[in-house]
């Protein structure tokens, strides 16, 4: 019951939060002295030509009117037109969302597959050499600037060794879009050349993004496992004479995982933030690069569209995590 | 005074935390002594195009950059920018976020709900995206980077203090003092704040590291202080055009960022262990 | 792969040799050649009337045709869809005779009505080529007396009309109209589709990746390269190092001709790559805001002009990859004065002129464009120079969207702004005429410079068609602007186009930037 109440409460705030977010971003993006109509009109355009473009995109209206119009069109499913590409924002974003999700989801899976066992090992052998090494690793993961790490990887693996491509999502066109997830599309079409090309393009950005994510997971898993080891029921199991390995992997891990799972929201946040920078370095055609480009070109509708999508994803993920948290660990709900 | 002494004693026993503290002291010393330590202090604003892109040597310890300036000297002066940005931005965020969190946590009215929802709004997209948008709007300068980071960073403290305040209010002795008719200000500042200050200190220390990373990212994207400011993130961005030949160009500033952020994180971890008994066990 | 390998094993070595012998002569005939170009700017819109910049020239120059076309370097204007043209004695009516039998990609013939439609679309749809034509041609005045004749009626005589005619890219009217939505002149559709008659026809497009186009064998012009390229692909590769690495690996066969010299050096070391060289017509300069104190004082402007380290920038920072260009006209275009020395980096002279001012100047701002490292480096270098003569400066930067807005506003315009002036049409008016004419102030004249004597020369040159008069006027005008220190003129770009050795016959023209691929050949 409490869960349902929580979800309802959160959902009532969902729309106001999004509108508030849009309002902030709208205000911020529209006080730039940039007049995108000037760029669109081309060099040497007269004021009349510029005014015509302004009118067409509604840029001549007062800001509150522009914002109201924007909200109304969003409700009807229209995110507006990009001032640059002249295409609907939704269409541009649609190709970008799978690119970013593919990157972040693969990263989360890899980070979890490696991070959880390493966290358990660190806890089980605490104060051993492995534990100290892992501690150095996790501290580094959260201290290194992702754009610098990305450049180091490029320098080493792409430029010096030539093992991986430098940037981009595929060497040429990639697979024909079905889901928009290149890995999946390549598998569906059974084209293994494209598949290996797509995978090789994923290696460096995933490595860059996975480093801090993995560091976070290792930390939380280690702390969770230690918490569980010190709790009473483990003492009981030990007293029952179960081997240490069984206790750690079977009983302790299950409890420790709860703590880690509820951190997925946090990790997802780290990844989305990381994607903004990492996509810029790797020229990855995802949401992050789209956001940076839109901001730099004052493409208002692009900035708003990105905010809307990211905000929605982010709020939903956090809601999901809270529900999980509430279900697994009722103490923390509310 | 006594608590400070206790803290120092405990820190001295924690080797990694001590290492972190040393790194931070190092950063501060480098920033203060930059004019003395630098071999080419004028190179912050002066260029020698004929000497551009030279590798490390006895005259140029870390090589020269695209304008022929000494990277080592510029790196030292860059420490000043990093400190200024991080200190002011985090300080402002604390000054905004802590009172908001305290008040919202104490008065459970529609207004405190509203305050928290406003902070939710800021937390609904990655901090860096809002910071980029604000920095871009205001134009690249040191002041604007600080402003952009402060505007986007305060909700983290507000959320933390809000949650901590609410749990502190459940303490028996706080409940008792409220029952005895203590004024809200008295309760908040005499009972709640001291009780939650350790969390704030820990969060602030780690927050310094995060702020330095975000500020560097803004500089990397070209939204930091303008050239010829020797900001570290900007230096790394400049170097990309000259890779792989000028490998030394990005190395030094990247390592510098790494060490400083690591310093704050290690110190923060150490402080957490000492100050926050609930997580202490995790480090045993 | 595995299957192929076991098959080869089964055949044995002898069979392998036999296979190779058979396959060898067949392969070139059967396999298509594909040229891949790595471009630094994204092809986010394919509409030839919306986009005018040189960075994205490949889509319009390869897939569309105009009545005339710029070719070679220095650029000459040649008949293209039009076989010939006549100009009325008053210089106001231009009549073009169309080539018969020229076809769009869908096979329909190009008629005069398509040209009329394209002209009206340029004027109405508000793209980047509209400002070129709007002052000269009013909507509804372009006529098609018959299927193969087009008449343009100019509002006033113009010496540059022919020079801008190549930008009238002719659209397939029926196709565009079919895809029009809510009277948008097909803007949404044309942003990602193509309705042209050019040498290549669009096959695939993705705004995040680029476009692929296939050779249009029915093109009216049969003079292709000896081994014409079957398929061209222009891909967006923003990161400089990726473009260079891709070329070294052979994934790309060409990229833009303005790479830093450090990278050109790397490419020269490869045995698979050659670097085409040409002096282009793209000048790098600093706009000085002449309409604001203290830059309205000629002494201050001269001091500024003597305080920029031209050699340090051109020779060291750009490794001598550019040519010093002292006037607001590229050295290599007619109308550029010969033997003019221009300013040098001379801080003593700068101080002399500074001393002649009534009062010491205030702090000035120097602007550069985000994303263009050269503008940043020049701003920083200039600041260092001015610092030495005691002029305080502040460096500011904005993205192009903001820069272009501020350039139009006298109050918002920066004191100094570094940028390029590219070639939209190869006529001196493209540079000195637009940059310093009084009636262009706030539009293309962003210096607020207005010298009545210079203006008289420019206006006369714009109206007369007497080549000798025009040449002399431009020589005089650009020298005068230089003497007035109306701007700081730094260099003229050299083009270093890196290409894979499989590709030959690249025909460089400043307007097409060496990217019109119909002239080139490619080995398999």
Biggest sheet architecture of chain B: none
Helix content of chain B: over 70%
Structural class of chain B: mainly alpha
CATH C-level label of chain B: Mainly Alpha
| Low-confidence runs of chain B | 280-284
Q: How much is the average pLDDT of chain C?
A: 91
Shape of chain C: globular
User: Under CATH, the topology of chain B is which?
Assistant: MetI-like fold
- Unreliably modeled segments of chain C: 1-29
Structural class of chain C: alpha+beta
Distance between the amino and carboxyl termini of chain C: 22 Å
Taking Cα atoms only, what radius of gyration of chain B do you get, to the nearest Å? 22 Å
The neighbouring-strand order within the major sheet of chain C is 13-17-12-16-14-15
In terms of DSSP E residues, the strand content of chain C is: 15-25%
The overall strand count of chain C is 19
Q: What do the pLDDT scores of chain B average to? A: 88
Number of strands of chain B: 0
Which pair has the most extensive contact? A-B, 51 and 47 residues
Task: Tell me what the structure shows.
The complex is a heterotrimer of chains A (334), B (284) and C (524). By secondary structure, chain A is mainly alpha-helical. Chain A has helices at 2-30, 36-41, 47-56, 63-75, 89-124, 129-143, 146-160, 182-188, 192-229, 232-240, 244-261, 264-282, 287-296, 300-328. In chain A, α12 (264-282) packs antiparallel against α14 (300-328). The model of chain A is unreliable at 330-334 (pLDDT under 50). Chain B has a single domain, classed as MetI-like (MetI-like fold). Chain B has 11 helices and no strands. Helix content of chain C is 32%, strand content 21%. Chain C has a 6-stranded mixed beta sheet. The longest helix of chain C is centred in the N-terminal third of the chain and has 29 residues, at 2-30. Chain C is globular, with a radius of gyration of 25 Å. The chains are: A mainly alpha (334), B mainly alpha (284), C alpha+beta (524). Chains in contact: A-B, A-C, B-C. The interface between A and B is large, with 51 and 47 residues.
